[in-house]
Amino acid sequence: MRQLALTVIVGTRPEVIKLAPVVRAARKRPRSFRIRLVLTGQHPELAAPLMEELELQADVELTLGSRRGGLAQTLAECVRSIGGMLHEDRSDWVVVQGDTTTALAGALSAFYEHIPVAHVEAGLRSGCRTSPFPEEMHRRLTGTLAALHLAPTPQARRNLLELGVPESSIVVTGNTVIDALFEMRRCLPTLQSIMPKMPTSRYVLATIHRRENHGERLQQVCDGLLQLLERNLDLSLLVPIHPNPEVGRVISARLTGHPRIVLVEPMGYATFVAALVDATIVLTDSGGVQEECAALGKPVLVLRTDTERHEAVAAGVALLIGTSPDRIVEATSWLLTDPLAYRAMQRPTNAFGDGFAAGRVLDAIEHATATS
């Protein structure tokens, strides 16, 4: 088969983490693939440093114009920038990941240029159009535009089939985040030396950033975390602060100054994996963190009332608890004081992959090209 030109588009931290294994695997197969890695300006403060850490060099860096119109303006600017690039230098495939504005803009721009789209992490569904917001609709719309659906799990495949997506265009690959996680975990003896020093040996790692948890819900989460520390005097808390000012302002105002709370800037991926491995319990509203915890066997309490990572809940390693302070204290304290319950949530699962998803992604693209 001839060499295929792939344009891989990333704009956020999760996209960089999850598509890095695909880019690396493709560059190890130069006879089959020519990669153009594109970095949009969606989240430059998070994506660009991570690119450097993972030793990825963008072939194209796009600059977005004014985004004063919020989500709509960001999408419009992404489509304008990506569309112009694809029009000038076409590819055989455009590869997008997940549910971001960048993914939707990349898929729509490719569709306008008659370039097939390969959607990595296709088929996730929460069942609610506005949760997570706007990611649930982003992934649904991206899936509508995709020619090849690279589903991370059998459940994601079933979701797509129920929507009428042709079976021939769906391939279950596993989630590429597990590839990235396992690769980083091999370096853990080195990584643990760069961990922030915690006041106690037991600590909770908490990550909060979802739009639906902004405002009152975020304040509730902070209240619950403070009450949790009051109830468990041997416990400390590690919180990487998301750069979104709405998040940072509330977290800083509510949690700064407590002797057992460590607030840090957004972590590099290596440091975050080390923190994840050493944490006693993880509280998060992140989808990717749910997948990483499941693979590591790390008990994770999800600060949402629904999830598109149903496999983690079914495997017993994740529990949906919402944002109520009472529920945060109750569920976390239960795990801290009940060894049997804790051990039951400590079982690693390969529900999200085995670490070889990137190769399957590339094989699926080759096969789809040969049979089209």
Folded structure, characterized:
The chain has helices spanning 13-27, 44-53, 71-88, 101-112, 135-145, 154-162, 176-185, 188-191, 216-231, 245-255, 269-278, 287-296, 310-314, 325-337, 339-344, 357-371; strands at 4-10, 33-39, 60-61, 93-97, 117-120, 148-151, 170-172, 202-207, 235-240, 261-264, 281-284, 300-302, 318-320. With 372 residues, the chain is α/β, with parallel strands linked by helices. It has two domains: 4-174 and 355-371, Glycogen Phosphorylase B (Rossmann fold, 3-Layer(aba) Sandwich); 188-344, Rossmann fold, CATH 3.40.50. A seven-stranded parallel sheet has the order 3-2-1-4-5-6-7, with helices on both faces. A six-stranded parallel sheet has the order 10-9-8-11-12-13, sandwiched between helices. The longest helix is centred in the first third of the chain and has 18 residues, at 71-88. The protein starts with a strand and ends with a helix.
List the helices and strands and how they pair.
Blueprint: E1 4-10, H1 13-27, E2 33-39, H2 44-53, E3 60-61, H3 71-88, E4 93-97, H4 101-112, E5 117-120, H5 135-145, E6 148-151, H6 154-162, E7 170-172, H7 176-185, H8 188-191, E8 202-207, H9 216-231, E9 235-240, H10 245-255, E10 261-264, H11 269-278, E11 281-284, H12 287-296, E12 300-302, H13 310-314, E13 318-320, H14 325-337, H15 339-344, H16 357-371
Parallel strand pairs: 1-2, 1-4, 2-3, 4-5, 5-6, 6-7, 8-9, 8-11, 9-10, 11-12, 12-13
Helix pairs in contact: 1-2, 1-7, 1-16, 3-4, 4-5, 9-10, 9-14
